[in-house]
Design a protein that fits this description.
19% strand, single chain, Endonuclease, Chain A, 2 domains, 448 residues, alpha/beta
C-alpha cells in the first residue's frame, strides 16, 4: 500500500523547516497508516526458547531449528576472508559458493584462482554469482575458472532491464558439506580489506569523497547439523540456473554431521520474493523477534529503511520499555547516500517512541545483524529495506545462544565510537530543501 504523502508547501527561505509527515510506505495503492499508529496487537511474547516461538518461526519462515551446532563470528574482511581461504585450501570433496558481487579486483582474482586450483585438484567446485551485481567484473575471470573445471553459473543477465530489480543478494559458502560461511560480505577489495588498517578504494568514504576508508561488515561460520540447511538453500538456487545435480552428486554434498553437546540452536532462513512460500520469510523472522523482545534490541544494518510493519514493531517495542538501538550509515559513510536521505525522513516517529539511531561516520557500514534480549541473534545478507523485502533473494541465520548475542552486542558497543546519536534537535534544524529531498526519496523507499 503506497503512502499518500504530500510534499511540504514552499516557504520563504530562512523560515522554519516543514514538518515531516509520519505516513508509512509500501508498494501498492491507497493511503497508509501512520507508522506510529496502533496496529493489530501482537500475540503475547512467549520467549525465545519456547516451543511456541520456534513453532511459529517454523511455519512462517519455512525453516527449522537444529541444535548442536558451532557458531563463530567473523568480523570484517580480515577475519572472514582468512577463514574462507583456510576452508577452501582444505577442501577435499566439494565447494559450493554463491555471492552477489564477484569483482575482478585483487580480491576477486585471488579467490577465483583459489577456486580454479581446487577444481584442477579434482574437487567439484560450483559457483553462482548475480549477473547485475557482478556486472563490472572482467568476463575473463569467470572464463578462467570455467577453463579450470569450475562450474560457474550466473543468475540473470545484466542487459535485461525489465529484470533490473530481480536480484540474488545471497552470500553462502559451503565447504565439504561440513562448514558454511554466511553474512554480508561480497567478493571485492572493500570487503576483504575492511578493518585491516589498509586504506581501500571503497565507495563510501567520508566528507572528502575520496572513498579511502575500510568497510565494516560481519559474517558467521557455521559447523554442525544446520550446515545441511545452508546446502539446501544453495541447491535450491543451483537448480534454477542450470541443470540440477544427479541424485548421486547431490548425496555426496551431504556427509554425516555430528551434533555438539550443548551447541546452539540455529535456523537458516532463505527468502525469495518470486518463490511461493519464501516471499516474506526474513521479514517475518525479524518481525517475530522484535515482537518477542522484552529487554533490549540492537540492530546493525547498512541500509536501515524498514518497511512499515517492521517500523511499527520497533516503535511498539520501544513504547513497552525495550531498549532499542540502531546503528546505520550516515549520508557521509553510505555508499548509496540517497538511502540515508530517505531513511531520515522516517526517523521522527522512531525517536519519538524512544528508539535510538546512531549514524556511522568514515567508512561504510555493510553489516546486517541484530540481537534480541541477549539470547537471539540474526546474521545474514538481509538489509532492513524495501529491496530486501520486495525484490532481492536473501539468506539469514538465526541463532539462539547467549554467547553469540554477547559477541554481537560487544561488537555493537565497540562500534559506537565511530557514530553519532541522531537527535530531535538535529532533525528539526534541517532546512526546507533538505526535507523536500528526503520526502521525494521517501516516496520511492519501497524500491531501495
Amino acid at each position: 500500500m503506497k503512502a499518500e504523502v504530500r510534499p511540504p508547501a514552499p516557504k520563504a527561505l530562512g523560515s522554519a523547516p516543514p514538518p515531516r509527515p509520519s505516513a508509512g510506505w509500501a508498494p501498492g495503492a491507497g493511503p497508509a497508516r501512520a507508522a506510529g499508529a496502533a496496529g493489530p496487537a501482537a500475540p503475547p511474547p512467549s520467549g525465545f526458547r519456547s516451543h511456541a516461538f520456534e513453532a511459529r518461526l517454523d511455519a512462517e519462515t519455512k525453516s527449522r531449528a537444529t541444535s548442536g551446532n558451532t557458531v563463530s563470528m567473523l568480523y570484517d574482511g580480515v577475519q572472514s576472508f582468512a577463514e574462507r581461504e583456510r576452508l577452501i585450501a582444505g577442501a577435499k570433496h566439494s565447494i559450493c559458493f554463491q555471492t552477489f558481487i564477484f569483482s575482478s579486483d585483487e580480491t576477486g582474482w585471488k579467490l577465483a584462482r583459489q577456486l580454479a586450483a581446487k577444481a584442477r585438484e579434482g574437487v567439484p567446485v560450483r559457483v553462482i554469482y548475480d549477473a547485475l551485481g557482478s556486472g563490472r567484473a572482467d568476463p575473463k575471470m569467470f572464463q578462467m575458472m570455467r577453463d579450470a573445471g569450475v562450474d560457474v553459473r550466473a543468475y540473470g543477465e545484466k542487459w535485461k532491464v525489465w529484470d533490473l530489480n530481480d536480484r540474488w543478494h545471497e552470500k553462502n559458502l559451503i565447504v565439504d558439506g561440513q562448514a558454511a560461511v554466511l553474512g554480508g560480505m561480497n567478493i571485492a577489495d572493500e570487503y576483504a580489506l575492511g578493518g585491516s588498517g589498509r586504506m581501500v578504494l571503497s565507495r563510501g568514504g567520508g566528507a572528502s569523497g575520496e572513498g579511502t576508508h575500510a568497510w565494516r561488515d560481519t559474517d558467521v561460520k557455521l559447523e554442525g547439523p544446520a550446515v545441511r540447511d545452508s546446502m539446501n538453500a544453495f541447491l535450491r538456487n543451483w537448480n534454477e540456473v542450470g541443470a540440477p545435480l544427479s541424485e548421486a552428486d547431490r548425496q555426496r554434498l551431504f556427509p554425516p554431521l555430528a551434533a555438539r553437546d550443548g551447541g546452539p540452536s540455529v535456523r537458516v532462513v532463505q527468502h525469495n520474493p518470486e518463490v511461493k512460500g519464501l516471499e516474506e520469510t526474513t521479514n517475518r523472522l525479524y518481525l517475530r523477534a522484535i515482537e518477542t523482545a522484552q529487554k533490549r534490541i540492537t540492530i546493525e544494518n547498512a541500509y536501515f529503511l524498514p518497511p512499515p510493519e517492521l517500523r511499527k514493531a520497533l516503535i511498539a517495542a520501544a513504547r513497552r520499555g525495550v531498549d532499542v538501538r540502531v546503528m546505520t550509515n550516515s549520508r557521509e559513510a553510505n555508499d548509496m547516500g540517497f538511502v540515508s536521505d530517505a531513511a531520515r525522513y522516517f526517523y521522527d516517529d522512531l525517536m519519538k517512541a524512544g528508539v535510538k539511531v546512531y549514524e556511522k561516520h568514515g567508512g561504510t557500514l555493510h553489516s546486517k545483524t541484530a540481537t534480541f534480549d541477549g539470547e537471539f541473534s540474526i546474521v545474514g545478507s538481509v538489509n532492513l529495506n524495501g529491496r530486501s523485502k520486495n525484490t532481492d533473494a536473501e539468506i539469514a541465520m538465526a541463532v539462539t545462544d547467549p554467547k553469540t548475542a554477547a559477541s554481537l552486542e560487544a561488537r555493537f558497543a565497540e562500534g559506537l565510537k565511530e557514530t553519532s546519536l541522531v537527535t530531535k534537535k538535529e532533525l528539526a534544524s534541517e532546512g526546507f530543501f533538505t526535507n523536500l529531498k528526503q520526502w521525494a526519496l521517501s516516496t520511492l523507499a519501497w524500491t531501495f
